[in-house]
Amino acid sequence: MTNTVSIPTFANSSAQPTAPLFSRASGLRLVEQIVQALASRIDDRLLRSGTRLPSIRQFADQHGVSRFTVVEAYDRLVASGHLESRRGSGFYVRERAPLINAALSKPEETAGNQIDVVWLARNMFRQLPPQKMPGSGLLPNELLDAELVANALRSISRQAPNALLQYGGPQGFLPLRQQLQLKLAELEISATPEQILTTSGVTQALDLVARHFLQPGDTVFVDDPAWFLMFGSFAMLGARVIGIPRTQDGPDVTKLAELAAQHRPKLFVTNSVLHNPTSGSLSSPKAFQILKIAEQYGFYIVEDDIYCDMHPGSAVQPATRIAALDQLQRVIYLGGFSKTLAANLRVGFIAASTELARALADRKILSSLTCSEVGERVVYKVLSEGHYRKHIERLRGKLERARDRTLRQLDRIGLDTADSAPVGMFVWTDTRRDANRLTELAMAEGWLLAPGSLFSPHQLPSSRMRFNVAALSDPAFWRFFEQALAGA
Amino acid sequence: MTNTVSIPTFANSSAQPTAPLFSRASGLRLVEQIVQALASRIDDRLLRSGTRLPSIRQFADQHGVSRFTVVEAYDRLVASGHLESRRGSGFYVRERAPLINAALSKPEETAGNQIDVVWLARNMFRQLPPQKMPGSGLLPNELLDAELVANALRSISRQAPNALLQYGGPQGFLPLRQQLQLKLAELEISATPEQILTTSGVTQALDLVARHFLQPGDTVFVDDPAWFLMFGSFAMLGARVIGIPRTQDGPDVTKLAELAAQHRPKLFVTNSVLHNPTSGSLSSPKAFQILKIAEQYGFYIVEDDIYCDMHPGSAVQPATRIAALDQLQRVIYLGGFSKTLAANLRVGFIAASTELARALADRKILSSLTCSEVGERVVYKVLSEGHYRKHIERLRGKLERARDRTLRQLDRIGLDTADSAPVGMFVWTDTRRDANRLTELAMAEGWLLAPGSLFSPHQLPSSRMRFNVAALSDPAFWRFFEQALAGA
């Protein structure tokens, strides 16, 4: 049986703040308002597909509007594909979600040996509730600040509507790049706005850099373990990916020197601070050694610092940026706001030598023209008005508490947490089981995990698992996981 | 001498609608409001660099606020890099624009033989007023509707703030893809939402398709003339670009068959409707012949339909989409909203076979994860609420009038317009002079033109010039151009 919802009750009890259905004071026609209110609730899945709407008479009575108004509104929602009319039975929210599920259901059903980078990448985007995704790489909404972003967006729509009509600058919104200059200066990295270009997240930044440096057959070094999406991205370019083992305070530099001599890589991509997935950070002596090896063998270092703002300061965990030593000669520094502000704004950036920044900007023009300045203006506003700093402080506090809770739970179920980093959003746990197998068991119960094999440049079997400490608040997960460990 | 502005006068007389400086009723502190109001005016260049601000006392008196408030606001604007304090002289808007100018001034100074794709691409992004850019590929703001976009943005910030925090779906916002399904159906192209993926403009769409099909050394066919940015984009991939001469009703099919037999291309990229730069459109018999040749030689057709919505209907100019014949078997259809709604939203899309759409979505994930859903939601709202259709009707009317005016002016100065297409935003004029030389003369006077050589796949010299009919409203341009023609 399908449910009939009473729209006003629904709107009032919704978890997400929703505007009232309509207002007599608005400039818009009543029917327009009703159409918009219902359409947006359907688009945002507040009204789910299959839900039966009140009858025309019920709706008219409940809201004190004429039946003609309701008829027109429902008709328009049928035309726009939001509702369907079932003969003799009334109006229903049209089935829309199955389209996504159809496109994404296959990977979910794959057996363990098919768990791969694309599998996880696709599943990360499934419409699972965040608390069902302990393997996610993003923070759940509770740690972020939707109002901060929404307010900035509103203020942009009021203050600079014309700016959205034309293209932004090819290197990105200049005031944002000036803010980034200040931000980098705090990390002792000196970069003029000409040395900075915005990108559609760190992913595009990496893609631009990789396309600039790598020819098919070239070698690129990455951390081992490392962020899995890169492997696919480099493979797409025909590059050979080799992993440099990660130790607690950074890459294994002996191994790095050895492999560099042997393979003559073009690039070494590394997270200096809050490495994904271990949450370890780089020590100063290692930073210096890496730079010397890079100079000796002539490769560039791509320092992906996307977790930068989650780091609570060197008193808790030393954290060195190689770019601070090198000042963007041999280091290409990447950053962004997907993790700490809002992933959907797609704002990342590259800081590099002036010459390289210019070459990368040309490449950006040729592959996607510009980024949307909407996101860039939002980030600029939030940074320049000081809101970002306060938000980050709150976020760090919440993250610390979530991390403590997670480590306690892991201890409780008998997993060793002694080698865990003290900070960051990830815990890299040794499950002492086949993590792919655990992932399959979890998927069958509707939990998305991130098994260690994915973070291995060659997808080698692993007993490690990356947990997102902020996505583990559901006690049901721990009950499931304890049982799964016992069974696996 | 620098000017001192009276802020309130300025705010009231501004061409762009601006919010009042502050409101006692606002929840924000007065100083915050003043900081924000001034900062956004500076960011948007409403207050230009070098402008002197009222003294602290003047400002306090004019606005009835305390001097402490003004001191704090000015101080914070100095800290944020918006103002600078000059000893003994007061506060000035800081020099910011020169950074952009420095980055972009070099191409402007290049001699004629260095006019190339990157030159024009960079110059398109210069902060010239639109009426100074008859060579621009975008419509000026008067033909677009900033309020439409701003309203949609506001409504998204109110109704779906949480949606912005996480990633959108890898294929794009589903309700938008459902709207695109309806839009394509009107063109007789049948595509399910699974067959559609959003991209960061048509540029990223082309890049994804090209990276999927092309290996270094492969051949790609383009129209000759064609949109210049493509040449750079394909060259970046190491592909060989060959032009198919464009006749009034589409590509020269005899030549196409001949060259296909000879070069065995992987792709043929073409504008069927309102071809850039000629504004010609494809006839049905030619569409059929192109498809047969593609089948015979096994290449794919990339149908870039970015100008789709400017076309006034087949009664004025026949316009056939190859995808309507082929139903996305051998045709990859591209579209977007940069030209007709707002370039800065960066919303384009690909429609292709289900299998290909899936492969391209994986490639999109690996190269930039997702697009910003902000833009996608704006486009969705504007489409689904019926505003887009009305906007397009107004736009077509304005375009028609601008086109008539332009053709009259060209006639008047003695250029032949007999072979001009009757519709579209571009006129492809034969100047009977070296168009590169005219472009240099124009650049010296501050006008950006688009010479024919840029649209030639091999940048061959040309006497043709692409004019944007909507960017020619300044009589000063026609005075300049008439003189330039006489002199060149």
TrEMBL record, chains A, B:
GO terms for molecular function: DNA binding; DNA-binding transcription factor activity; pyridoxal phosphate binding. SUPFAM superfamilies: PLP-dependent transferases, Winged helix' DNA-binding domain. Residues 28-96 form the HTH gntR-type domain. Keywords: DNA-binding, Pyridoxal phosphate, Transcription, Transcription regulation. It holds the Pfam family GntR. In the C-terminal section; belongs to the class-I pyridoxal-phosphate-dependent aminotransferase family. This is DNA-binding transcriptional MocR family regulator. The lineage of its organism: Bacteria, Pseudomonadati, Pseudomonadota, Betaproteobacteria, Burkholderiales.
